Every structure is written in structure tokens, then in C-alpha cells.
Amino acid sequence: MCELLAMSANVPTDICFSFTGFLHRGGGTGPHRDGWGIAFYEAGGYRDFRDPHPSVRSPIARLICDYPIKSHIAISHIRQANVGGVRLANTHPFTREMWGRTWCYAHNGQLAGWEALPLGVYRPVGDTDSEHAFCWLLDQLRQRFPERPSNDDARQQLWRWLHRLCERLRGFGVFNLLLADGDYLYTFCSTKLVHITRRAPFGKAALSDAELTVNFAEHTTPNDIVSVVATEPLTCNESWLAMRPGELLVWRLGEIVARYDEEGHG
Amino acid sequence: MCELLAMSANVPTDICFSFTGFLHRGGGTGPHRDGWGIAFYEAGGYRDFRDPHPSVRSPIARLICDYPIKSHIAISHIRQANVGGVRLANTHPFTREMWGRTWCYAHNGQLAGWEALPLGVYRPVGDTDSEHAFCWLLDQLRQRFPERPSNDDARQQLWRWLHRLCERLRGFGVFNLLLADGDYLYTFCSTKLVHITRRAPFGKAALSDAELTVNFAEHTTPNDIVSVVATEPLTCNESWLAMRPGELLVWRLGEIVARYDEEGHG
């Protein structure tokens, strides 16, 4: 199993604390030695850092911990390879441009029969089930919505369609998803995703995987809202909420703005 | 004027020496303070590092110097903003996927009337003339070649078409180009691009912009072929060749494999 980590916040926030715990799972406390990546949507654009080596020994991972990049949305992934060799082209997160936005995607799980998903505009560069599913997903969105939805009604139609597509992919196996377009973070649970929203009054948090405690009150202002989504809880002294299988959450500025469940209710 | 740097090599080679001199131009010896980026095609895939801050002070740039990434093709760009604000979305190199390959692009120069270039599948994320021209260029290639050319004849047709598209863009202003697809590096000269090919017997080279000398003989094997393309010569004790305006060079494994000139001769 790979590990997923995402953040949505209403102010540019660094993910160093969560990422420090998270990357210990990449060959440290966890078995995920087959590469890692992290993507940031900053005010001025998008960038990602990927490395096909274990995260605990990666100088690039150390840079990310030491050089706080502040973003509204971040997505990270630690890989344990199943489909596709250990190489950079198979290292999440994957990105494609659609509607003049950079879309970022990370997947946890394994699909069966994914080769049958038809491809259109987007083609995989590597050879993983994950990237193939991403290309299919974006193409399906694009076919239904040739232009970017520009009002609330159209956005909700888009999200409902995204939920149906995720449900279809769940039919192929395990499909825990992190997806973002710079404005919204989408998280879909197939088997395992938990989340936490931190807001005033802020308290202390202690990492489960490393000896590190942070007092968020010292690093925040009273209006900050910061949510973190992960495969497993990253802290040992806070209550994380579990997503339900078949559930899609749409996040914006640290808060859930839409929720679609197994029965298709929005 | 921005500054361009590219490398094509027949063995995975780090670009640290050239990049060290190059990045001094980003707010050091040069006026290019508006961000920088570097992209690597490694055996296993593609990755890039971009920063909207001056390269001389960038911790990410320091990492690139200290942590040698070995690649067959690298492309780098230091920006002096003219069209589009100083932000990450406007920071070269730009990338898009076409035919299941990651295409990487960096541009030096300024275009006039570029807004009229019609867009198709690819849309700009930022607001530069450079990215708009890239989206147009890829879409034009894709329209003419829906699938990736798979033999020499088709490839030469592609390159000839690419040369014609570059010539059209040169009609809009200054268009010095670095473009790559992982196999081939394409360099098009509108006003200024120079290149050098290093092979056995290797000698010493001294940077023009920083106090650094390297003896390539100590870092190479007799079969290595490494070519560097840049806006200006990076070393002060070697002979760099100037490209001609309107010339497209196609590089593979450190050598020029095709050349198209102003009259359209291949």
C-alpha cells in the first residue's frame, strides 16, 4: 500500500510538520521505499518535487522539510510499487493540464483490468495502473465538460460526474484518490482515508512517526483553517475522522464544500 | 533578455558545472532576477525544478548544484520578465504531455501579436507569450501528427514541420527555443544561441561567470559525448559555435542528427 497526504488551507500554509511524519513512512517506519513526491499549489502557480528513491534518505525531501513552501493545496504520495517499475515516470503525483489549469493526482490502491479503460487526449508516460486511470478520468471529465464550469450549478454537475467516475474506478479495485485543480481538492475514499480540520483555538499536536510536537497556536492566526487528509492519522493526540468507502469530499480553503456518498447523494 | 541553457549527452551526465555558471546570471552577474527553472530527462522519467525567486539566492538552485542529477537531456531558463508577472505559473520551463511523452519548452525573446495564435487541446496556465506559443506549437504538431512518428521518414517530416512552425513564430518577434521530448533536443535560433560539443580528448574548461575550472578528463570516459547549448558562451577558454538565425538543430545523445536552415533545407 502506498501512503497519501493532502492539505487544504485558507491561508498559505507550509506542510512541513505533517510531511516530516509522513516521510518517515518512506523507508523509515513504513515499507514504502519506491519513491515519493509532493506537489504545491502556491498563489502564483504549481510545482512538484518527485524522487524515485526512499524519502527518508532523499536530499530533496530534506529540502522540503527545511525550506517551508506555503500553499493553499498540497498533495503528497509515498510509493510502494506494485504495477510498474521503480522509476521517475511511475512516481506520483502525476500532472496534466486541462482547461488551462494544472491538475494533480495521486492514487493509493491497485486496479485490475485497468488496461481496458479507453484513452483519449491524455496518454500515460509511465506504465502504472494509477497514471492510466488518471488519463482516463481527465479525458472523461473533458468529454463531458469541454470548457471549465464557471458557475455553481455547472460545478456541482462536474463534481457529481467526478464522483460517478471514481465509483467506476472503484469497481476495478482499490481506488483512494487525491486530486486537485488549484482551487479545489478532491478526496475519494475506497478503503482508507482520514482527515482532520484544525482551527482556533489551536492546540498542540504530536507526530505518530517521529519525535516532534508542534503548538499550532504559535504558528497561526485565529482565522486560519487548515485541513489535512491522509491514509492513516499522522498525530497520536488528535481525533481524525474516517471517510466512508464511496465518499467524495470537495475541499476549498480548508473546508468541505461538497460531499457525495455511495448512493450518489450530493 | 532571458537566458537559455540545454544539454544533450550520450551518457547520463550532470549539468552542475554549466549550471553553476549559468545561475550566477540570475541576479548575480546578470539582470535576470525573475525566476529560473531546470528540467531533467533521466533514464526513468522527467522532472523539473522551478523557482520564481532569483537563482543566486535560491536554496533549490543550491540543491541542484550540490546533488548531481544525471540526465541525457536537460533544459534550463533564467527569466527576466517582460510579458506576464513574476510568478510560478510564468516560470519556464513549461511542460505538456503529447503522445505519452513529456514535452519541455523554454523560450527566450518577446513576441508581438501572439494572442492571435489559435489554441486547441493545450491552454496556457499562466499569461506569458512564451507559454501561449508553446501551446500553439504543440497543438500544431499534434494536428499534423495525431500519433507519434515511428520511423525515420515520419520523424523527418515532423522536424521539417517543427522548423516551419518555429519560422512562423519568428515572424512574431524574437524566438530562441529549447524544446525536448526525452529522446530529442530541439534548438531553434532566432537571434542568439551558441553550442559546444565536448568529446575525447577532454580538456579543462573555466567558467566565465564564476571562479570555477573543471578538468573534464577526470569526469568522463573516452566515449562520452556531451553538448551544451546556451544564449552566451559559458566558458572563457573554449570555442563555442554560433547558430544562424532561422536554424533548427535536432540533437540526440550529444550529437546533431538533423539541421534545418532558413531556406528550409534539411
From TrEMBL, chains A, B:
Highest taxon of source: Bacteria
UniProt GO molecular function: transferase activity
Entry keywords, A to Z: Glutamine amidotransferase, Transferase
Pfam family, one: GATase_4
Ranges where the Glutamine amidotransferase type-2 domain occurs: 2-254
InterPro entries given in the database record: EgtC-like, GATase_2_dom, Ntn_hydrolases_N
Protein name per the record: Glutamine amidotransferase
The keyword Membrane is annotated on this UniProt entry: no
